Amino acid sequence: MPEIARDGVTLHYERQGPTDGPAVIFSNSLGTTLHLWDPILPYLPDHLRILRYDMRGHGQSEVPDAPYTMGQLISDAEAVCDAAEVRDAVFIGLSVGGMIGQGLAVKREDIVRSLVLSNTAAKIGNPAFWQERIDAVQRNGMGQMADPIVKRWFGRDFYESPAMAPWQDMLSQASVEGYCGVCTAIAGTDFYTPTSGLRIPTLGIAGSEDGSTPPDLVRETVDLIPGSQFVLMRRAGHLPCVEQPEAFAGHLTAFLQSIGHL
Ligand SMILES: O=C(O)CC1=CCC(=O)O1
C-alpha cells in the first residue's frame, strides 16, 4: 500500500500500468476517494501509467484537523507525484481535483504538461455557501447529508437508478473533519488570475445536468486558457466519469491522442 508523509500527514496513492507508459494523474472531488475513477479504468488504453491518490482527509489518507488550504492540497499532490516519480503527465482533476490541477500546473510545469478539467472551475461557490455546507455537515453528520448532496452530483436518471447507492455510501463514510477541511480550502480559492496565465493543452468536460459546476462555469474557466478544448456530456451531472464511464474515457483518450500523449 504505497503512502508518503508530507507535512506530518500520511497520503495514500495507487499506481497502475507500466512505469514507462505515458503518465496520467487523477485527482478526485470533495467527499470521494480515488475509487471515483474505477468505472473508467477498463476503458482506458492498457499502456497508460496511472497515478491516483486520496486527498488529505479523504479515503485512506490521514485526516488532520480542519481547516485545510488549497496550497496544502496542491503541495500534497506535488509530493505524491514526486514520490511516484511522475513527470510530463496529463493531470485529470474533477471538481476540487480540477482546482488542485490548475494550481499544480502553475507551480510545476515539469509535472503537469497538460490538463483535463472536469466539472470544475477557477472559483466554485463563495465563502458563505461553503460555510453553510460546513455547518450543515457538522450539525447532521455525513450520513444525513449524503442524500441531498448526491442529488446535486448526478443527473436524474442515474440518481434514480440502483447504481447510485455505492456512491452515496462512499459519501456517507467520508470523514466530517476531512470533508469540512476541504470545503474551507475550496471557499478560499479563486484561480482566475493564475489559470489565465496557463499555456498548456487543456480539455474541459462538463455535464449538462451538473448543478454544482454548471457547463457555463466550466467553459468560462477553460476559456481562460488559449486553445483549450471543451466537451459537454449530455444527461450527465457532476460526476460523468461515474455516470457515463465509457464516454468519459473516450473523450479522455481522444484528447490524449490529440496532444500526442498516446
Ligand atoms: O459536493 C458538491 O457539492 C460538489 C463539489 C464541489 C466541489 C467538489 O469537489 O465537489
From TrEMBL:
<dbReference type="InterPro" id="IPR050266">
    <property type="entry name" value="AB_hydrolase_sf"/>
</dbReference>
<dbReference type="InterPro" id="IPR000073">
    <property type="entry name" value="AB_hydrolase_1"/>
</dbReference>
<dbReference type="InterPro" id="IPR026968">
    <property type="entry name" value="PcaD/CatD"/>
</dbReference>
<dbReference type="InterPro" id="IPR029058">
    <property type="entry name" value="AB_hydrolase_fold"/>
</dbReference>
<feature type="domain" description="AB hydrolase-1">
    <location>
        <begin position="22"/>
        <end position="244"/>
    </location>
</feature>
<protein>
    <submittedName>
        <fullName>3-oxoadipate enol-lactonase</fullName>
    </submittedName>
</protein>
<dbReference type="GO" id="GO:0047570">
    <property type="term" value="F:3-oxoadipate enol-lactonase activity"/>
</dbReference>
<dbReference type="GO" id="GO:0042952">
    <property type="term" value="P:beta-ketoadipate pathway"/>
</dbReference>
<dbReference type="GO" id="GO:0016020">
    <property type="term" value="C:membrane"/>
</dbReference>
<keyword id="KW-0378">Hydrolase</keyword>
<dbReference type="Pfam" id="PF00561">
    <property type="entry name" value="Abhydrolase_1"/>
</dbReference>
